[in-house]
Amino acid sequence: MASSDKSAIAYDEEERQREEKLGRGYKWIALSNTTLGALLASIDGSILIISLPAIFSGLGVNPLVSGNVDLLLWLLLGYTVVSSVTVVTIGRLSDMFGRVRLYNMGFAIFSFASILIYAASYLLSGDAAVLTITGFRLLQGLGAGFLFANSAAILTDAFPANERGKALGFNQIAAVGGSLAGMLIGGWLASIDWHLVFLISVPIGVIGTIWAYIALHELAQLKKGQKIDFVGNATFAVGIALILISLTYGIVPFGGSTTGWSNPFVIGGALLGFLVLAVFVFIERRTVSPMFKLSLFKIKAFAAGNISMFLAGMARGGLQFMLIIWLQGIWLPLHGISFEDTPLQAAICMIPLILGFLVSGPLSGFLSDRYGARPFATAGMLVNVFGFLALATLPANFIYWEFGLIIFILGIGQGMFAAPNTAAVMSSVPPEYRGVSSGMRATLMNVSFMFSLVVFFSLLIVGVSTVLPAALYNGLIAQNVSSSTANMISSLPPSSALFASLLGYNPMKAILPQNVISSLPPNNANTILGTEFLPGLISKPFIDGMKIVLYTGAVMALVAAVASALRGKSQPGNEADSKESYK
């Protein structure tokens, strides 16, 4: 009998025993529940991007006041920081104590925090409300870490190897697509009642928690007697936290600089974070029960898959943020949309990106079960290279169908990559390390988003700041603003105007003193506060900065494609080669 026939018989027997033990439909229960968890966690990671203007207005807080910048950053990014810091530790604990058990715990934590956030949004106001909601958002991020760390591992346990691409495809659609859909959902709910932005996760979270507790079963073969690597867990968490927090403040102006990269806190925190991570690697190579098996990177498919995923996340993560700024700060105002209405309209304009992802994600996951991950993941990144370069050819005031077509193609490429790559990474490791591997994958995905956001925004600011001051000065002088005032306004960091437009504020109204506006002739004041004044001035410098961002994204996507192509030719549905590599 041929070896392939023996493998098929062994697979049929394994699947029969699995179905006898759990029931024929268990794998679909696992898929639907973990997909709900991944969707909910990823939506909450991005739902505030569009809805922040309505939330701050409802709470009676002006986020553009210098003392409130920290509140804005932590409310927006604290959730991602916490989930990124904790997810690998949670994955390791899941391998020791049960993936389903910790997944259920995460759903419960997430739901409890969601209830507290919604209650605080009604009971409190002002800075106290923002601080309280931010604190509960950090707790919610911890719950999301449990969900991110275990959803892929639970699916890998529940599905046979030759169906994992399809299953993980749907899960990845939820995880990545949810971050895209979160912006649209947040904008839509905020236009009705901003409290709904916090309410939506409560009933879904409670239902998901109860359902997970009742329906999911532990399939992992847990190793008894393992010890918790407290030192490794602590050094990893501290190192990642220092880096992410430092990078977050890198986009905030410091002193006379347009960014925060000259801030000693940013420089020192990032260097200390990398030093602590170096200590973490030293510890993990010598401890008996390490938090993370660094030897897993000996598996070619695991190493190449994670490298390409990190680079793909770098290329993709900050892009949606940059596109939102482009739409809200320039394109929509130039087409007569008031700054107050741009957040929701920007989310609607991003729908083609979501549709492209939804079209290609499940299909590429299904096909990768048959033909392997490499061709689809590699092709997806090459499609993204084309998309980045195509976006770079557009003018600031583009024709929408061209923009929509390009971001649809970008969504296609991202969907082609996400599901096959995740399936290949999760199938490449021994079953007993799926939890920590899932955690590492989720950490790299979250960290790549933060890195991308910081790098892209910094590149954009650098590109804009070289031209904007002179353009803004001349534009204000032409509208009868005094030379001293025009000089003062043009010297402000470009991030002030970009943040204002992102938050749905009229940038000129936010940065120009009220007494200056009231002293101007009505025609000049109306022109300055109109939807076309600043977008018209900023268009040229903005598009110069965006080209730097897009060319950088294209290079990252190209390197990700190369890394993906180097993953090897492992047969779809076959784990034997990766297990042998690990040994």
Structurally, the number of domains stands at 3
CATH topology of the largest domain: Growth Hormone, Chain: A
Judging by the overall fold, what is the CATH architecture of the largest domain?
A: Up-down Bundle
Spell out the helices and strands N to C: HHHHHHHHHHHHHHHHHHHHHHHHH
Q: β content, as a range?
A: under 5%
Low-pLDDT runs of 5+ residues are: 6-11, 571-583
**What would you call the structural class?**
mainly alpha
Fraction of helical residues: over 70%
Termini separation comes to 28 Å
Total DSSP E strands: 0
Mean pLDDT: 82
Biggest β-sheet description:
none
Radius of gyration: 24 Å
Using the alpha-carbon principal axes, give the shape.
Answer: globular
Looking at CATH, the homologous superfamily of the largest domain is MFS general substrate transporter like domains
Number of helices: 25
Instruction: Just give the CATH class of the largest domain.
Output: Mainly Alpha
Give structural notes.
The protein has helices spanning 3-22, 26-59, 69-97, 99-123, 126-158, 164-192, 195-199, 201-215, 230-249, 264-284, 300-317, 319-334, 342-349, 351-371, 374-391, 400-427, 434-465, 468-478, 483-490, 494-502, 507-511, 514-519, 522-528, 533-565, 576-582. The chain is mostly helical and 583 residues long. It folds into 3 domains: 23-218 and 289-465 and 541-574, Up-down Bundle (Growth Hormone, Chain: A), CATH 1.20.1250.20; 227-288; 468-540, no CATH class. 56% of the residues are buried. Residues 6-11 and 571-583 have low confidence and may be disordered. Helix content is 79%, strand content 0%. Helix 2 (26-59) runs antiparallel to helix 5, helix 4 packs antiparallel against helix 5 (126-158) and helix 5 (126-158) packs across helix 17.
